[in-house]
Predict the structure.
Amino acid sequence: MTDAPARTEPRPESHPAGPRPTLSEVAATYPERRPPRGRAWAAVRRVLRHVALIAFGLVMLYPLLWMLASSFKPTELIFREPGLIPTEWDFGNYTDGWNALLDPFSHYLLNSAIVVLGSVLGNLVSCSMAAYAFARLKFRGRNLWFAIMLMSIMLPIHVIIVPQYILFSSLSWINTFLPLIVPKLLATDAFFVFLMVQFFRGIPKDLDEAARLDGCGHGRIFLRIMLPLSLPALATTAIFTFIWTWNDFFSQLIFLTKPDMYTVPIALRTFVDATSNSSWGPLFAMSIVSLIPVFLVFLFGQKYLVKGIATTGIK
Amino acid sequence: MAVIQEVARTRGAARERRKGDGKAAALFLAPWFVGLVLVTAFPLVASLYLSFTDYSLLEAPGWIGLENYTAMFSDPRFFQALKVTFTYVLVSVPLQLAAALALAMVLDKGLRGLAFYRSVYYLPSLLGGSVAIAILWRQVFGADGLVNQVLGFFGIEGVGWVSHPDYALGTLMILNVWTFGAPMIIFLAGLRQIPAMYYEAASIDGAGRWRRFRSITVPLLTPIIFFNLVLQLIGAFQSFTQAFIVSGGTGGPVDSTLFYTLYLYEKGFSSYQMGYASAMAWFLLLVVAGMTAVNFLASKFWVFYDD
C-alpha cells in the first residue's frame, strides 16, 4: 500500500557532501564586484593564484619527493644532492634495506598487516554494534553511558598504558598481537562509535520501524538495514583504522619487544638506531616501502577521508 | 496512506517506549562495555593506585604514599619535560591552525582543482605521525641534511638542527605545522556553512575584504576554531613518535626534546619505575583535563554560536 519512500540515499546533515551552490555563488559574486579592471586582469590573477598554490604544494611535498628520489641514490649522494633527479641510480638500496635486519622486510610487513587487519575487523564489528545501541535503542542510563563513551575518546593512552602492560603481561600476551587487536574487538577506539552514531542518526527511522512492524528483531534490523545503509561510515572507519594502526608506534613499541614480532614501525626504528651515515639509502628505501600502503589507501579512499575529517575532526 | 503510516509509527513508538530495549542494548553494548571496564576503567583506577606504590614489575607493589609525587616535583627532568611539551604545544598548535585557516580561506574561493590542492595539502597529515617521516626529518634537518644542502646553495652554512639544543624542538614544531591539512579540511567544511548572502550584504554596504574576514568569517567560524583548538591541543600534548625517533629515544640533545610522554615511557618502560610513571600519567590526565576545561570555560567569551 505505501510506496517505499523512494530510494533516498541517507545523507546525515552532518556530512557536508550535500548540495553546495553557495560556494560558486560566492565565487561568482564578490570577486567580480571588484572595480572592473577587465577580464584579462581577473584571468591573470587566477593563474597567479594557481601558480602560488602549486608552488606551495611543491614546497610542502618536496621532502617526501626528495626521500623517494634519494631512495634510488647511492648513500653518499643523499648528503650532497638536494635535487630530485638522481645523477646516479642505485636500485641496490631496496634489496639492501629489505635484508638489513634479522628477518627480511616482508616479515615485518606481514606482521603489520596482521595487526592492521585484526584492528580493522575489530573496530568495524564492535564499534558498529555499540553505535547501534546508542543511536537506536532505548535503555536506562543511555545518556550517561554515551557521555562516558565520549570522554573515553579524550583519554590519553599514556594514562592507562602501564596497568594495561601489567594486565597483558599477566596474561602472557606480551610479544603477541593480542594486546593490539583484542582491545579493538572491544570497541576501545570509541571515536568510531561516535562517528557511526552520528551516521546512524541520519538514517530515517521509518525504515527500521517498518521493519519492526514486519517482525524484524534488532539483530536483523542492524544487519539488514543499518549496516548496508552505512557503508560510507564503515569505509571511513576502516580507512582511518588502517592508517592509524599502520602508523602506530607507541603501543607497538611497548607490546612487541621480540625481533620476530616487530611490525614495520618498530623494525624501522631498530634500523635507524643501528644506522651510521653509511646506510641512509637502504633506510630511505624501507621508509618509502612503509609509506606505500598508507599512500594507496589515501589515493583510493580520499572521498571517505575528507568526509570523515570534516564531520568528526579526526586526523 | 500518510495517516496509516503515522498511526503505525506512533503505535510502534509507544510499544517501544513501554518495553524498552534493555535486553537488546545489553547485547549490542556487551563488547564495548567489557572493553570500557577491562581496557580503560580498570587500568585508569589501577594507575592511580600504582602511583602511590614503588611498583617495578619485579616484585609486588609496596605502598609509599605520596613519595612518587614529591619525587616528581623535585625532579628537574620532570619540569624540563613539562616545559618542552608546553612550549611545543603553545607554539606549534596556533601556527598550525593559522596555516590551516589561511589555506582554507584561499581554497574556498571556488577555484578549479580544489580537490587536488586539498589532497596535496592533506597528505602530510596522514603521513606525519609515521616513523618513516620522523626518519626523514632526522635527515632533512641533520648536519648534512637537505635543509643545509639548500642553504649551502645560497652560501649559508647551517648547523645540525636536530643535534643542536636550541633548534631541535623547532624542527619538531615545523613537523607539526606541516600537518595542517586535517584542520584545514575542517575549516573548509566550516567556511561552506557560512551563507553567501552575508558576504553579499556586507559588500553592498562597502565592507572590504579584511572587514568581511574580521566581521563575518571569524565570528561565524569560532565554533570550528574552538573545535580544532581542543583537538589539536590534546593531540599535540601526546606526541611521542617524532621526538622519540628524531632524538634516538633519548629526548636529546640535552633533554631539549624530552616530551612528557617520552619521559613517561623512559620511566615506565626503560627503568621500570612504574609507580613513578603512573604518577606522571595521572598528572598528565589532570593537565589535559584542566586544559580542556579552561578551553571550554574561555570559549564562552570568544566562541559565537549562530543559533
